[in-house]
Amino acid sequence: MRYVLLLFVIVLFASCGGDKKNMALAKGVPGDLYVVMDSAQRKGVIGDILDSLLAAEMPGLPREESIFRIHWIDARKLNYVLKERRNLIYVMTLDSQTPGTAVIRKMFTPESITQIQNNEKQFMTTLSDVAARTQEVAFLFGKSESVLAANLRQQGGQLVTHFNLRERERLTHALFKAGQMKGITDLLIKNFSCALKIPFGYKLVEQSDDFLWIRQMNPKDDKDIFISRKPYTSQADFSLENLIAYRDKVCRKHLFADPDDSESYLMTERTVPYIPVTADTVNFNGNFAIQLRGLFRSHTPGVGGPFVGYALADEATQQFYYIEGFTISPGREQREIIRELETVLYTFQTSQQLPAQGPSKP
Predict the structure, then answer these.
(1) Contact criterion met (CB below 8 Å) for 161 and 67
(2) In a shared domain, residues 196 and 332
(3) 18 and 149 inside one domain
(4) pLDDT at residue 9 is higher than 70
(5) Strand, helix or coil at 208?
(6) What are the distances in angstroms from CA 26 to CA 49, 82, 110?
(7) In the predicted model, what is the mean pLDDT of residues 183-197?
(8) What is the mean pLDDT of residues 52-68?
(9) What's the CA angle centered on 32, arms 11 and 165, to 5 degrees?
(10) In a domain, 359, yes or no
């Protein structure tokens, strides 16, 4: 998603134009976001709203972790190192006369300043590869603080969605740069009438007519993805209670903390009141879907952790799919692990989205 401001030119970075191959690679780690604004505005209403949006707790994790790790930068301290951060947000309102705001205002042409004065509905534009390759930059602006604050309150979720999408795009490139497990993808196309791109490192654990489980076990974490399906019956399949019941049925049959202990099956955790299972309607690669987030645990004392899942129906085959990623990684931050699993899940394709040539050749 891009928000393009007519006549908007970034004067400060004009010298960076040209061949992107000569640009440095953007610096920083996944989930980091740098917000550049005047320190006075940082302490005011604009800073408060941005903090509530960007540093909000990611739902469904066992411990508190924000959606992004925010770094607040006074605009007067902006330097070439900061300009090359992977995720940058510049904030400016025309009614502010502070030195920090003046630094950011110089990035705007006179024509774009006029447009900001005349169009109160437009408050954001985004650009890629401004000062570094794989970089994403957002500019937030307004005729006044009150105008920008109103727009952020009403539409600020677009900002979170945008940077989440960019992080997923970067992760997709990184995860599949070395290739993928095409054999498992071909198996899904042949036996399940769907597809999922599997990064190297995952292994097939179990497969049956309506279930497939893959796993990547590392010294510090265990990443798991499963696909389950059943005949689609009605819209009631998408209700929260029915989704949890179906998930628990699949887990009890196939997923165990200890394969030799039939009572160690995994189940949805619903006894933690401050971490409920959430169900949200999402656009999942063009398909209507319900996104589930929450915690799981083994029936007997043992393991647990967060999960993210998607439920959708393939109208062509009348199959109902539930696909999920979960992790067992005690003591570790889990935000980026879940983001990685979500990235893999978003490569899912229904029968109507499969490439015309069918299964890939070995």
Answers:
(1) no
(2) yes
(3) yes
(4) no
(5) strand
(6) 27, 10, 29
(7) 95
(8) 93
(9) 80
(10) no
- pLDDT above 60 (res 14): no
> What band does 1 get if pLDDT is binned at 50, 70 and 90?
very low
User: What is the C-alpha to C-alpha distance for residues 39 and 235, in angstroms, rounded to an integer?
Assistant: 50
Residue 196 sits in the same domain as residue 152: no
Q: Are 86 and 32 in contact (CB under 8 A)?
A: yes
- Judgement on whether residues 183 and 247 belong to the same structural domain of the protein: yes
Average pLDDT over the chain reads 90
For residue 330, pLDDT beyond 50: yes
* Co-location of 122 and 185 in the same domain: no
In this structure, the answer to whether residues 157 and 265 fall within a common structural domain is: no
CATH of the domain at 19: 3.30.379
Residue with tokens 């879940």: 338
Residue 110 is predicted with a pLDDT of 85
Structural domains of the chain, count: 2
Rounded Cα gap, residues 266 and 258, in angstroms:
10
Mean pLDDT of 18-30: 82
For residue 129, give the nearest of 169, 84, 91 by alpha carbon. Answer: 84
Same structural domain for residues 90 and 128? Answer: yes
Summarised one tens digit per residue, pLDDT across range 205-227 is: 999 999 999 999 988 899 999 99
Contacts of 239 (CB under 8 A, 6+ apart): none
Looking at 115, 148, 175, the residue that finishes a domain is: 175
Contact 232, 350 (CB under 8 A): no
Same domain, 158 and 183: no
d(CA 283, CA 278): 16
**Domain limits for position 160:** 11-175
Rounded CA-CA distance 93/105 in Å is 8
- CATH assignment of the domain containing 209: 3.40.1000.10
328-337 exposure pattern, b = at least 16 Cβ within 10 A, e = fewer: bbeeeebbbb
The HSE-up count of residue 55 (CA atoms within 13 Å, CB side) is 12
> What is residue 19's predicted lDDT score, i.e. its pLDDT?
63
